[in-house]
């Protein structure tokens, strides 16, 4: 995947995505996945989703 996003931008998007998905799970379900493995899964999924969405939006503009 060739993108113009820098490493720092991907790191920031990853952290924000992890926080947002964790927050959404607390709102919707009332809890997040337990333990550090569950938190790691939620963080990775949130990071991937936010990076994917940002790349989709940037591609269309």
UniProtKB/TrEMBL annotation:
* Subcellular location, record wording: Cell membrane
Alphabetically list the UniProt keywords: Cell membrane, Membrane, Transmembrane, Transmembrane helix
Question: Does this UniProt record's set of keywords contain Ligase?
Answer: no
Membrane-topology descriptor: Multi-pass membrane protein
Q: Which residues cross the membrane?
A: 7-30, 36-57
- Coiled-coil ranges from the UniProt annotation: none
Question: InterPro entries given for it?
Answer: Transgly_assoc
Q: Which family does it belong to?
A: Belongs to the UPF0410 family.
Q: What is this protein called?
A: GlsB/YeaQ/YmgE family stress response membrane protein
